[in-house]
Amino acid sequence: MSRPDERPLTRLPTLQPKKSSLELCVFCPKLCRSACPVSNAEPRETLTPWGKMSMAYFVANESVELAPSFANPAWACTGCFGCRESCDHKNDVTGTLFEARSALAASGVAPPAALRVIERFDERSAILATNALDLSSLAEVEESAPTALLIGCAYARHAPDEARDAVRATAKLVSGNVSVVKVCCGAPLLYAGAKKRFIQQGEMLAQAIKHKARLVVLDAGCASTLRVHHAAHGTGMIAPVEHFTELAARELGSLNRVEGLADGPVRYHDPCQLGRGLGVYDPPRDLLSRALGRAPDEFQRTRTDARCSGAGGLLPVTMPEVSRAIAATRVDEHVACGGGTIVTACASSAIKLRNQGASVVDLVTIVARALGV
């Protein structure tokens, strides 16, 4: 028997396949509310997973007007998957909110910051191609190499040294040269709400690597975008896709201890997209243990329960103050645990945590040193 208030999602029909996911949240007692970094940083009921899903649902079924005040909560999400881990149903809140962003953007009510990301996407993604050209001078880069390496836009824009470390380390791990991918995975388009362009971007990337034996991805967000979101839209890559830490962990015996690294606490931060997104928890710790000669230090909240850095899902541009507050909370936890150095495997997280005053080293640099490259 249907509910008296049940109605189709007429206004945003592309959300109809997500109706059951939306309703699981709308009629839930909000068990996941404490898991959301956004509503923890800015405690408003509308910003809890329940609130964000409810607003999308009520806009879609025409219970409320199609207006920015009801649409904006869909962008108040880092895509960290934290709410899913606290949900008895393991509900796909992240995927549903990203779908809602696309439907709302198509209806003309996306936040101005999200629209600017879409407008500037080609300009920003061109930086990745420029970075690839810069890396082409390295001896380890060869256009025809069977292993493709996707650095990611965050590394291209903000971490060129780590990008070079990735090229040299990947080449050492595969015992051969690598080709550097010049095409963005399209994650900013997904986060902003440009679904059609996101799918087209995935098709462009698939075309760029169609003759490659495998694709190694350095950026955790790019890896999750490919293996989770592009796969959900049917734009999965033909070549096998693996994160750099997965490749390196299989060659653990090739790594040596890095002298001087263990001076003081060295604490591993789980990137949301690598951990909860792809379930990759042990490989980074195995690599760090090998380089340290001991197990790395840990945060109080780790693995599936790890706190977000606030760097994902476009939150730094749609809600910059909240993004900074989330990062500050993670750094405060680090200090409370004894401080020292944070190691992570995500450029966006590293940048965000550094901006809050933490000492942060990217794991790819440690692996490169452990390999002697």
Could you explain how this protein is built, in words?
The protein has 373 residues and is α/β, with parallel strands linked by helices. It has three domains: 13-109, no CATH class; 118-250, 3-Layer(aba) Sandwich (Rossmann fold); 255-371, 3-Layer(aba) Sandwich (Rossmann fold). The protein is built from 19 helices and eight strands. The strands form two sheets. It has a four-stranded parallel sheet. A four-stranded parallel sheet has the order 6-5-7-8, sandwiched between helices. It starts with 18 loop residues before the first helix and ends with a helix.
Fraction of residues in helix: 40-55%
Topology, number of strands: 8
CATH architecture tag of the largest domain? 3-Layer(aba) Sandwich
Mean pLDDT: 94
Radius of gyration: 21 Å
Instruction: Sketch the topology as an H/E string, one letter per element.
Output: HHHHHHHHEHHEHHEHEHEHEHHEHEH
Strand content: 5-15%
- What CATH calls the topology of the largest domain is Rossmann fold
Uncertain parts: none
| Tally of helical runs | 19
